């Protein structure tokens, strides 16, 4: 996680191909605060069709993938911008 002024703000994002990351970085440049990249402990498949299939199966099972690194004290932020893909 990288810190900038406006410590009460957090931009947290998950990006498989970099699109959501690009938007998260733009938001971070504008509002400051902290930025945190969410990375799944087990990466999603590179192939888009396989990725969507896995995401659909996880959704049907109400599965929440583990993260490689957890954010400490998310409750310490006043505002959290959350970016993620829609598959």
From TrEMBL:
The record's section on InterPro entries has: Flavodoxin/NO_synth, Flavoprotein-like_sf
Q: Where is the signal peptide?
A: none
Citing just one GO molecular function, the answer is: FMN binding
Transmembrane regions listed in the UniProt entry: none
Against SUPFAM superfamilies, the record matches this protein to: Flavoproteins
Its domain of life reads Bacteria
Residues of the Flavodoxin-like domain: 9-87
Know the name of this protein?
Answer: Flavodoxin
> From which organism does this entry originate?
Thermodesulforhabdus norvegica
